[in-house]
Design goal:
Number of strands: 12
CATH topology of the largest domain: TIM Barrel
Shape: globular
Largest sheet: 9 strands, mixed
Helix content: 25-40%
Length: about 425
């Protein structure tokens, strides 16, 4: 009788389970890399950055390894000031195994408990690195990131279009043209902004308590947009966290007949009780989350039932695995997830990998309609949105690679472009466990 050792049984068991679960690509990866001499043994050698400005400011991150595999990530919004932090984190990660993504993330997060690791710039900097590590892991193992995060529950990710810089003005021909453009691009959902610092009815430059005239203008913009899109098109409205609770309540109530997909951040997210008070006063769904960090930041929002929908930004809230954890937490409260996303096709595709694996996904933002030429040529693969949907590829890693000739057109003047990190004054971290 042929002798079967433990490793053979383990491998055959993994292959059987993977086959039954319908995960042939994962099964193949297990077959390829499960033996000790075939598993990639990588070490991080450097972390580099490039700064761009398109819709706001973003930092692109590249993590280099000793075997030539390079991972790419992107962080946004709170990314201003992250470059020195990213370089510091890179020195801490030097020599470590990039496939131990959770270990790398936790080492840096917990070591910064007195340095701001709860939110803001610190978490945003770490986010860019975390995404790049997942890209490395996928490339090293030969599988797409969505497979590493649990496997797809959907093949296409629905995207909604933020209307961009075009202000929706009732009867305005340019506004009509923008709405028509969004429909022609194939989107089935869109978002408009109704906070207007230049509104003639505003009575104070600092206090954003809206006057009756200002609220009338807001409602008119939404009604005009709703009429042109039609009743079956999903429409969201953003107040950008500028107003007080009284204004938020009035606007949410008056928008009820227009059946919005959501009203976004009528008040800042800092006062969760105020957000809950608005939600309880209206049937208009309330959404927030783009300025909330890590799953601990979302815990109270969900526990107090302050929102109907959450919108974590996966390029600043902690990254892809953290985004999955946030979505799983929301799922226990039956709250859907609509990721905030204002980044390049690299960050958008990274978000789409997560959106593909979470059961409670609703839709994902897209905010580059004012920069279509840059958008369509930012990655070598070209356009990634087709008729309002992204299809996460089955290529290893994120599945897209930067077209540097195009991306450098948006480079922040005077900033380095993926230059090696200076080692002076820093020290490398310990090898991976």
């Amino acid at each position: 009788m042929r002798h079967t050792d433990r490793r053979t049984l383990l491998k055959s068991g993994l292959m059987s389970v993977a086959g039954i679960a319908g995960l042939p690509s994962l099964a193949a990866a297990v077959q390829e890399v499960s033996t000790p001499y075939k598993r990639p043994r990588l070490k991080i050698t450097d972390v580099r950055t490039a700064e761009v400005r398109v819709h706001g400011y973003q930092v692109h991150v590249r993590v280099h390894t000793d075997q030539g595999i390079v991972g790419q990530g992107e962080c946004t919004d709170a990314a201003m000031g992250t470059v020195p932090l990213i370089r510091s984190f890179g020195r801490q990660l030097a020599g470590q195994d990039p496939l131990n993504v959770e270990a790398a993330f936790e080492r840096i997060r917990t070591s910064g408990v007195f340095a701001g690791a709860q939110a803001g710039v610190y978490v945003t900097a770490l986010t860019g690195i975390e995404i790049a590590l997942w890209d490395i892991a996928g490339k090293a193992l030969g599988v797409p990131v969505h497979q590493l995060l649990g496997g797809k529950v959907r093949n296409r990710v629905r995207v909604y279009c933020d209307s961009g810089a075009r202000e929706m003005i009732p009867g305005d021909e340019q506004s009509k043209a923008r709405i028509q453009q969004i429909q022609q691009l194939g989107f089935t959902a869109a978002k408009i902004d109704i906070d207007d610092a230049a509104d003639p009815a505003r009575f104070d430059r600092v206090n954003w308590t809206a006057s009756t005239g200002e609220i009338d203008h807001m409602i008119a913009k939404v009604a005009f947009t709703r009429e042109l899109y039609g009743k079956t098109f999903d429409l969201a409205v953003d107040m950008h966290a500028r107003y007080d609770a009284g204004t938020g309540k009035r606007v949410a109530k008056e928008l009820e007949p227009l059946k919005l997909m959501w009203l976004e951040e009528p008040v800042p997210a800092e006062n969760i009780d105020a957000m809950r008070d608005i939600r309880e006063s209206t049937s208009t769904p309330i959404q927030c989350g783009e300025n909330v960090y890590l799953r601990w930041g979302f815990r109270e929002l969900l526990e107090k039932r302050a929102v109907d929908i959450i919108a974590p930004d996966l390029q600043k809230c902690g990254g892809l695995l953290e985004g999955r954890k946030i979505a799983d937490l929301a799922h226990t409260y039956y709250v859907p997830v609509a990721p905030h996303a204002v980044t390049s096709p690299i960050g958008m595709m990274a978000t789409a990998h997560v959106a593909a694996v979470i059961p409670n996904f609703l839709c994902q933002e897209w905010h580059w309609i004012d920069d279509l030429d840059l958008w369509r040529n930012w990655v070598k693969e070209g356009e990634i949105i087709e008729k309002g949907f992204i299809t996460p590829p089955d290529r290893p890693g994120l599945g897209v690679e930067m077209n540097e000739e195009t991306a450098r057109k948006a480079q922040v003047p005077g900033t380095p472009w993926f230059e090696p990190t200076p080692q002076a004054g820093g020290r490398g971290g310990r090898g991976g466990d």
